Amino acid sequence: MTSIFWFRRDLRLKDNTTLIEALSGKYKIIPLFIFDTNILDELPRDDARVYFIYSELKKLDSQLRELGSSLLIKYGNPLQVWQQLINEIPVGEVFYNKDYEPYAIERDIKVTKMLAAHNVATYGFKDQVIFEEDEVTKADGTCYTVYTPYKNRWLERLNETGLSINREANYQNLHPQQYNFPSIVELGFTQSRIRVKDFNLSHLDRYEQTRDLPAVDGTSNLSVHLRFGTVSIREIVALVYKRFPIFLNELIWREFFMQILFHYPRVIHENFRRKYDGIKWRNNEKEFERWCNGETGYPMVDAGMRELNQTGYMHNRVRMITASFLCKHLLIDWRWGEAYFAKHLLDFELSSNNGNWQWAAGTGCDAAPYFRVFNPAAQQQKFDKDFEYIKRWIPELDTFDYPAPIVEHKFARERALAEYKKGILNEE
DNA sequence: TGAAATGTTGGGGCG
DNA sequence: ACGCCCCAACATTTC
Hints:
Layout: E1 2-7, H1 17-22, E2 28-36, H2 37-40, H3 48-66, E3 72-76, H4 78-88, E4 91-97, H5 102-117, E5 121-125, H6 147-161, H7 207-210, H8 223-228, H9 233-240, H10 245-263, H11 285-293, H12 299-311, H13 316-329, H14 334-344, H15 350-361, H16 376-383, H17 388-393, H18 409-423
Parallel strand pairs: 1-2, 1-4, 2-3, 4-5
The chain binds a DNA duplex through helix 13 and helix 18.
């Protein structure tokens, strides 16, 4: 008998909760990754995230080979892959780290049921968060929908429980089978021109001062690594706890939106606050296209969209500005913007993307009030005074090639306020 | 994790 | 010296 550890979005050996647990079990462990066609079939062949996953798997595989084992790679619908696997290999137990997105939950339930029918037990433990959906709740057991009290309770809980990291793994228990590692082309994909940058925690001491300046390399680039688990959240929290509270805040926002998505999966399609359901979005497709291409005539907005299109990344401050512009100035449904970000962001995380878009649109839990409309020029004055960021992405800024504003600011602001006011329903 | 409109205050110029 | 006006600077309210 052998057991299988199923890698998903936890692509590391170090401080991998369930992997370490699996390696202390009674059977040898085969490490497995499945390229999930339910997800991949929707993506372009040169998707940068797929290539990043592939590159990280290759690293994992060589680490495993040094330990005398290797990574088993499969491709297909996970349920069918598992059905085949248990016919090929005498499987004792299956291990994986828990995942909290609706699709992943449903997938894991299906696989678990199927395996149970073949007398194969599955074990899933918490790994990708400090606190999962039912660990930070109000006194009556319900989940928080406002960030600040959630954060306070989260910090209290951390103070109570502390962090446990860096447990030693028993690599003797890896299965010695050496599988072939496929090429990216064999998997039906190609290399991407966009590469994922390493994360950088060397200037956390300046994070508070520089995090809002898109021209400065003041952010950590951690998000994509948390998305795919190439770094452990516990190691990061241990590093910043009590030293960099503003940075820790961002990590708590991540878990806040994860538990919101868990408890309210309808937010994927609906406004969290139904009283905004009456808003009539203009949804002008030509205008949406100009926003996507960074051709709105507002430099701060256009620079952000061009950064996204060229690198798969956008500075957080600029994400807020571009999102506000789409929802308020153009009155385009936040779901359109959410979908565009989902397609282009390397660090796309369903819960954060949805939560922050609903925040910008004013429709979310604990969202910005609807009348808060960012002024792109004022934001530029505050956060990119010397046009350093803007010129990096819009070289033609001072020429006649740069488009005129798609809509006049004062007019757009007043139109948005009027439409929102009209669309608000009385009942919550 | 806003911005704009409106209100208040206080110093200086000036008759 | 005094009141009046102007207006910048700051505070509060409103969207």
